[in-house]
Amino acid sequence: MHPDQIKQLILAGMACEHLELDGDGQHFVALVVSAEFSGKNRVQRQQRVHQTLHAELASGELHAISFKTLTPEEWSAQRG
User: Which terminal residue of the chain, N or C, has fewer Cβ atoms less than 10 Å from its own Cβ?
Assistant: First the structure.
């Protein structure tokens, strides 16, 4: 899958304040910043992003993606 396709799927499935995606065409790493993550633990956040890519992951079209998930406040604090 092309990184732009993955970004569009995530953006279509949830509200993101910021989204970065890097990868080599086979393995991807995404930084997802969303207010939807407030009050959710790490696993719940990962599950939420996975929901946006469920069909692609199930079909094998997308097979390796990892996420860093932050609230806007956490992202702001990390950036200093």
Answer: C
